[in-house]
Amino acid sequence: MEATRKKRTRLQRFFLPELNRRFIFRLLAVSAVVVLICTQVLLPFRIQGQSMEPTYKDGGFLLSWRGRYLWSEPQRGDVVAIRFAGNRVVLLKRVVALAGDTVSFRNGALFVNNAWVEEPYVRGPSDWNLAPRLVAPGKLYVVGDNRSVPIFQHDMGQVDRDRIIGGVLW
Amino acid sequence: MVVGKMQIGLLGLVLGLLAVAFWLWPNEERAIGRQLAKIEELGSKAATESALEAALKARQLTDLFTDPCRVEVAAHHLAGDLSKQQIREQLLVIRGLYQRATVRWYDLTIKRQGSKAQVRGTLRLQGEWQDKPVADVQEVAAELTKIDGTWQICAVTLVAVLER
């Protein structure tokens, strides 16, 4: 009964597509592209923990852009994703010092190469004290933005450059 | 046309059965994976866990290790051989600290050569300690050896990702 079939609008065809071979091929192709992007290019993460508050809140969502450091190196102030054995669980930290720098904390204030570093992203009181340490070659010094917790409870320190899998998209 | 559909159906069924058989076929990597899964199961703790249950789980966890087992905490430059008794005591203390805990493996890789295997993965613990939510993530490298048909952990290293 071809004659009685109504002509479908462009909008109808988009939202209610016919289940034909062409549609299935397109669906598979789109799915493959999405999987490729979400596993290799833009990694989606749910934030669990308060070490990057207030910049990134517990329970929030973010995308890590893996191409961020393909042609450039992480800089001081960058927020980076640090891998463990793989990419499924990562640490989110801020780079505060680069290889060859000396980093220390005095009464909550960050000093890099003996110069005070202004950190507008840090809110809340901090009483951190950390003796100066030299960042080794091939490493970066990373710290979270939440300095209100006792320093011994906070995961921070030197990390291999190779462990940085990307930056944060927003 | 009907025969064609039947043939396609049969082919799909055979392929499905082959895939299931391949998936269920016993191999050593899968046996190692099952041993590591016991760490998730026995390491996790419900809020209602009794002292007896805790002791039993600690004992079952200890059975996953050789006697002695080499333990290294790279971030603190600590290394030493622990007996099963010492491992059990440590496990009881650590599990006792938490009111509840969930342990999960991520990104596990298993490399086996004969009766030895190298395992690397991310171990994530989420729980409650002194009425506050806590979480810890560690990269773990372990060496397993097959003793009397059972894979046991003979060396374990907590890899230092961040060094102060």
Describe the protein's topology.
The complex is a heterodimer of chains A (170) and B (164).
Chain A (H helix, E strand, L loop, with lengths): L9 H6 L5 H21 E5 L14 E5 L13 E5 L6 E8 L4 E5 L2 E4 L2 E3 L12 E5 L4 E5 L13 E4 L3 E5 L2
Chain B lengths: L1 H23 L3 H16 L7 H12 L2 E9 L4 E5 L1 H14 L2 E14 L2 E14 L2 E16 L2 E10 L5
Parallel strand pairs in B: 1-6
Antiparallel strand pairs in B: 1-2, 3-4, 4-5, 5-6
Helix pairs in contact in B: 2-3, 3-4
Low-confidence stretches of chain A: none
Query: Helix fraction of chain B?
Result: 25-40%
What would you call the shape of chain A? elongated
Order of strands, main sheet of chain B, comes to 2-1-6-5-4-3
Strand order of the largest sheet of chain A: 1-2-11-3-4-9-10
Mean pLDDT of chain A: 92
Judged by helices, strands and strand pairing, the structural class of chain B is alpha+beta
State the major sheet of chain A: 7 strands, antiparallel
**Which spans of chain B have pLDDT < 50 for at least 5 consecutive residues?**
none
| Count of runs of 4 or more consecutive helical residues of chain A | 2
Distance between the termini of chain A: 54 Å
Helix-strand topology string of chain B? HHHEEHEEEE
Largest interface: A-B, 19 and 19 residues
* N- to C-terminal distance of chain B: 71 Å
How many strand units of chain B? 6
The rounded Rg of chain A comes to 23 Å
What are the secondary-structure elements of chain A, in order, as H or E?
HHEEEEEEEEEEE
Which range best describes the helical content of chain A: under 10%, 10-25%, 25-40%, 40-55%, 55-70% or over 70%?
10-25%
